[in-house]
Input
Amino acid sequence: MNASAIESNVVRDAARGSWLSVLDDLAPEINKAIEKPGHRHIACPVHGGKDGFRLFRDANLSGGGCCNTCGPKPDGFSLLMWLRGWTFPEALSAVAEVLGVSKGFQASKRIVQKKTHIEQSKSSVNDDKIKSLLRTVWQESKSIRHPDADPVRLYLQSRGLDGWLQNWSSLRFHPKMQYRNEDNQVIGYFPAMLALVENGNQPITIHRTFLTDDGRKAPVDSPKKLMPVPADRLIVGSGIRLGNTGRVLSVTEGIETALAVIEATGMVTWPLISATLMSHFVIPQGVEKLIIWSDLDRSLAGSFAAQKLAERAQTQGIQVEIREPSGPLLADAKSIDWLDVLNQCGPNAFVFRSVD
Ligand SMILES: [Zn+2]
Output
C-alpha cells in the first residue's frame, strides 16, 4: 500500500461514525433525510420526483443512501460524487477538509480506478436489464405528431400551451406505459409523454409524464418520473435536447416551461428536469450565449441553480442571461415559472431588450 492509499483510508476511518454531520455540511439539501436516516423519504436531490430518496439506516457509519430511480450510492463518497458531480479525489478531499484531516492529503488515481471497476462489475447484470428496458420502451414509442398521441396534445393544451409540437426526435409518445410505485409494484398502464435524457450525445435515461386518455395528469403518486439510470451512465450534466443548438441556447427546468419559451420566442430551448441537474448542466460546444429561463421558487432553489450554471458558463467565456419571472409569488404559490407567465401575461412578457 502506498502513502496516498493509507491517507484515503485515514479519511474513510475518520468519516465512519461521522457521516451524518459530514453530509449535513457538504449536502445541506438532504437535511430532512439526515434527520431520520432509513426512515424519512424525500424528493430525490438530483432528479426531483416526490419521495424516492432516503439515506440508509446505517448512514452515520456508511454515508450511503438510495434513490429508487438513480440507484443506490453505497457510501458517503459515492453519494457526494453523485450529488456534486465530483470525482472520487474531489469528494475525498472535501470530506477530509470537513473532518480536519486534510494536511498533506493527496488522493491516488490508482485507487479511484480500482474502485470504479469493482462497482461496475457488481451492477452490470442489473445494468443490462435497465438498458434493454430503456431500448424497448423507446422502440415502442411513436412520434409526438402521430394521431394516437392525442393525450399529449390535450395535456399540453390543458396547461395553456398551443399543443403544436415540432417533430423533435427526443420527445415521443408511449400509448401504454407501465407505472410502478416507490415499492416497485405495478399500479397500471397509462399513455405517456416520453423525453430522452442525454449527456452530450449519450442517452442516459427516459423522463416520463404519465397521462390519461383525455389529457390530464395520471392519477398516480408521481405523474412525472424518470426511468432508472444504468450505473455506468452519468445523469449529472444531462438535459433533454429539443432541437440542435446554434450560437444561442435557452434552458429551463421543466419540459412544459421549455415548450412555453419555444411557443413565445421560437428559440431552441432545452429542459434540464430539475434545479440540481440545471446547476450541473454541461453546456454543448459551440454555444456562445446561454439564456436561463429560471423558475421563481419560494425556496429559491431555481434561482440558486440558475446562478450556479451562469457562473460556470461565464468561466467558460459564454455570455449568459438569467431571466426570472418578475413575480410576486401569490400567498399559496410555491413557485412560478415561464409557463405561468405565458398564461398570465402572454408572449409579449418574453421580449427582452438586449443589452449588447
Ligand atoms: Zn434520483
Q: What stands out?
A: The pocket of zinc ion is lined by residues 44, 46-47, 52, 67, 69-70 (CB under 6 Å). The radius of gyration is 21 Å.
